[in-house]
Design a protein that fits this description.
single chain; mainly alpha; two-stranded antiparallel sheet; 6 helices
Length: 129
């Protein structure tokens, strides 16, 4: 999560800079609904694209895990969307949806359970063998 947080911070800073010239109101997330939706869209574009096309984000690659559907295939866009929004809810309730993975026998958080996805070990990683 830390590695992806660094990438997301850069993307959100860029997204905020792009949004600055548009509109007459202040750009404050959660106060300006349009700006908040824009930032969420940027977050989903990054995460959803990584999950759908590569099966992993930068952070997942570093930890050598891949996201797959329960049937072992790449996840669909609806699964990406479900995982994204349930992940937000998981964080909003003090991370309980993520902590749940420690209690689940399959190590799946709420976002994995809702989107029918799971994390598996991957041979791909940040370091060469």
């Amino acid at each position: 999560m830390l590695y992806d947080g660094v990438v997301m911070t850069g993307l959100l800073m860029l997204a905020a800079a792009i949004a600055l010239p548009f509109g007459n109101t202040q750009k404050i997330a959660f106060e300006n609904i349009g700006f908040t939706i824009w930032l969420l869209t940027v977050c989903f574009a990054y995460l959803g694209s990584c999950w759908h096309f590569a099966g992993m984000t930068v952070g997942m690659r570093a930890w050598r895990v891949r996201l797959v559907s329960e049937n072992g295939r790449c996840i669909s866009w609806p699964q990406c969307l479900m995982r994204f929004f349930v992940g937000i809810i998981s964080l909003m309730v003090f991370g309980l949806g993520i902590i749940w993975a420690w209690l689940d026998t399959g190590n799946r958080g709420w976002h994995d359970l809702a989107s029918h996805t799971l994390l598996v070990r991957s041979n791909q990683g940040g370091k060469p063998h």
